[in-house]
Structures are given as C-alpha cells and as structure tokens.
Predict the 3D structure of the following.
Amino acid sequence: MSTHILETQGLTKVFKGFTAVKDVNLRVKHGTIHALIGPNGAGKTTVFNLLTKFLSPSAGNIIYDGKDITHRKAADIADHGIVRSFQISAVFPHLSVRDNVRVALQRRLGYSYHFWRSDKVLDSLDERAMELLDAVGLADFADDISVELAYGRKRALEIATTLALDPALMLLDEPTQGMSVEDVGKITALIKQVAADRTILMVEHNLGVVASLADTISVLNQGEILAEGPYEEVSRNKAVREAYMGTADA
Ligand SMILES: Nc1ncnc2c1ncn2[C@@H]1O[C@H](COP(=O)(O)OP(=O)(O)OP(=O)(O)O)[C@@H](O)[C@H]1O
C-alpha cells in the first residue's frame, strides 16, 4: 500500500483560456484529515470536481491507491471507494431518515434500483441503518421525514448516507457551511469520529474547524498550491496571510 491514498500530478483545468487549477500536486496520506482551503475562486470546487470526475482535467493525472484513475468514469469512482458527501449521497427529502440510510446501504450492495422489491430485504438493512444513525446522533429521529429535519441534522444525515457507502476516501464539501455555532461543534466532532478508519479530504472555509480537524492543509490561491502543512505552519505563512487579506489572522 502506498503512503498516499490520493495523489494528483500536475493537475490542471482550463476553462476557455482561463486556468482555474494550475499544476496542482496534492498528496493525501492514508488515514488523515486533509483540508483544502483558499479564498473565493481559488479553485477548490474545481479540484473536487476533477477528483470526482464531474470535470475532465486539461492536463495531469489522478492516482488513487497507486492506480491511475484519471480517465475513469464518475460512477466507477464511487465503486472504488471515493465518495463525495452532499452530492452522490444526496438525501431524498420525502423519505424517512431511516429509509434514506437504507437506500444508501442498498446502493452499496448493488441493488439500488430494486429497493421497492421486498420488505424483507429492507428489514435486513434496518440494523445497520440504525447503527449508522446512532453514530451520527440521529437514532431518535429515524422515523422523521428527512425534509423536516433541522439543518444541522440534515447534514448529519448526509454524513450517515455517505458512511453507508463505506468510502475509503470521503470528500466533504464545506461540511459546516450555513450552520449554527452549536451545529458546527457537533459536525466537527462527528467528522473526527468518522475519520477514525478512513481518509477525509475536505473543502472548508471555517478556519477554526480546519485548525481543530486537519492533519494537513493545502492552501490554494488562483488555482495553485500556495502552501502545505499542518495548521500552525500554514497559518504563519506570509503568502497565505496575504492571500486571505487578513482573514488568516482570525
Ligand atoms: N465551468 C466553469 N467555466 C468557467 N469558469 C469556471 C467554471 N467553474 C469555475 N470557474 C472559475 O474557476 C475559478 C475557480 O472556481 P472554484 O469554484 O473552483 O473556486 P472555489 O475555490 O471553490 O471558490 P469558492 O470558495 O467561492 O467556492 C473561478 O474564477 C471560477 O469563476
């Protein structure tokens, strides 16, 4: 097994002459929490879209677990253990909390298109669904309709449906965005907990969250990696402070 679960080599994306991601060499170590930060428009979402195949790179390679996956299709990527939360695992708003997790579990088992088929099959997944809901603090809300959950709980449910796919590499897209201070604390603790046996790559604007969670931080600015390392190191970096125009002082 290589030290890095994910590596990009010279990853580049050009949109009609505009280079949004330029020669990015990202190295994400197995079993770590790695954060991708940077000012608005730095290229973070584009990097995520390249990693999950929503976009094709203009140049460069993506290596996952030692294999070149640059030309794999989006659906393939999830089967190989890379799951992006809040997208592939989107929650069905009118299903109950428990049913959402059951559908995700079935997807993992490969018969997602037959989920209406038999109550017995559904029941067999119940135990695992409840374990996952318990893990994200939603056991008491299992029978609630998902759309009616409070915002922080919806995001916890999204994490549960992502975990149901048992990803080796979990990509989290701004997991605390729009949350109350209390929910930010809860989601931070939850991410720490689920990171125990997997690797997490996250885009996150909240530097407090990044500081408390990330083992390694890559700072993107104008499509390029400006600095990389642990929070203490990166937050002292002059170029990083300048790129954030003071917000890195926070
Ligand atoms: N499909 C596209 N066509 C043209 N330009 C694009 C496209 N997608 C992104 N861009 C440009 O690429 C740059 C990087 O955008 P991206 O969304 O990756 O940044 P970001 O770091 O995720 O920003 P934010 O923090 O605001 O979400 C921006 O200047 C954006 O306008």
